[in-house]
Amino acid sequence: MLPLIQNPSAIGDIDSELAQSLPFSVAKRANILPVKTHDGWLEVWITTNTDPMALDEYRMGADLPVIPLTVDPDRFADGLNRAHEESSMETDRVLEELSPSSLASQLAEKPDLLESEDDAPIIQLVNSIIVQAIRKRASDIHIEPFEKDIVVRFRVDGVLHSILRPPKPVQAPLMSRIKLMAGLNIAEQRLPQDGGMRVQIAQKEVDVRVSVLPISHGERLVLRILDKGEHLTDLSALGLTKRQSAWMLERLGKSHGLILATGPTGSGKTTSLYAALNHINTTDKNILTIEDPIEYSLAGVGQIQVNPKIGLTFAGGLRSILRQDPDVVMVGEIRDEETADIAIHASLTGHLVFSTLHTNDSVGAITRLIDMGIEPFLVSSALDGVIAQRLVRCLCTHCKTTHTVPHSVLERRNISPEIAGDGTFFKPVGCNHCMGTGYRGRTAVFEMLTLSDPVRDLIDRRAPSHQIWKEAKNQGNDSLQEDGIRRAAQGITSLEEVFRVTQTNQSVD
User: Fold this and answer.
1) CA separation (Å) from 481 to 105, 259, 268, 291?
2) Between vectors from CA 151 to CA 430 and to CA 112, what angle results, nearest 5°?
3) Is residue 83 within 8 Å of residue 19, measured between CB atoms?
4) Residue 103 confidence class, pLDDT cut points 50, 70, 90
């Protein structure tokens, strides 16, 4: 008699060892995933695309009676990826097989990589590196040549981790294979090159941007991973507090004004602007963007890719956009006075304009615009709000532990009891779920500057940044560090991580 199993197990309950008993490629092709055992029965996920003959064949070879449960394709793909996430043996096995002598003989037989078979070791190695990077949620792959070997590192949650050290003879074919996939010139090894490729992994499309830079021991490659299968972030998923969310919604409800997102490269500025655009993206609005590059496609939004080689710059593209009767405009980045001037005048003539600036804090955006040559009265009139943000690593929920910071330490760091509470915080430990780092995933901390009348008066008088921020603080605006400490007190991140990201002394002892 069949056990009463009506609903599929949760993704977190999948038995990884059982799921990995069926190879990833076979499970994906057949749409069959062994999930869990129930009192002598085997729960197996299938989809509407599963071949009944393949299921019968699997059933015949299984050690236990099979209970097939149909799930939607997205859930099946998520379960398959999660089950195989920790399986990194393929890369190590390929490296073990890549002895310098065997590799040299294979490359001598087939000097043209296009003639290699799909299971050639170098192709296996490249594919495995990319697959493992995606499974480990890496945003970048760094391949760095040195005198005696090469190093492969993954950037996970903003921090680089050393993953592999292939032998030196692997360098030339490895670089050539990646350059070939990215459409770059294999013969050119003296000049920097940029390219890209699109790969499909577990039914998800992933774009990979490739940058090649010649250095003393060869060519250094950085692969930026953009997962096209990721859903566009909603405004509610940015991690905004109630007060920050109300601040954002108030500005998104206006018909004109300039809203800037500031921070260093990789701080999530573009993600926040995409979330804002997605929130106001309705059929009654004409939304146009000019970006470099276009990272994600927005349905219903006209997106323009900057191309300086043909004269399509931010300033030139923005001029053309304004002739298209837009309601909302997003400029990927304000880099010069011309772009800043057009963006400000667009906001003053009835358009809601979003853009980014590379400054360290919210007040720095005002100084930067004035330094570019924009008159202070134009800045104060057009600017409606500035967001400064950073990404902090989230503590792993499986291994984080509490610790108490003495009040004397909190006072020494000017952390008020209103923010720190009773001094109870959390700290990282490290486990298999977080690669031993104690952190898994990232969230943003924000600093939001409101352009009140007193602040506008200070801008008109060219007041220094510290005076503008002092006025903003008097109105209740939190700094980046204060917002981060509040999240640390909630157990989302650690104090050390907040201090690291906001570039202060990291010790809390």
Assistant:
1) 57, 22, 17, 30
2) 135
3) yes
4) very low
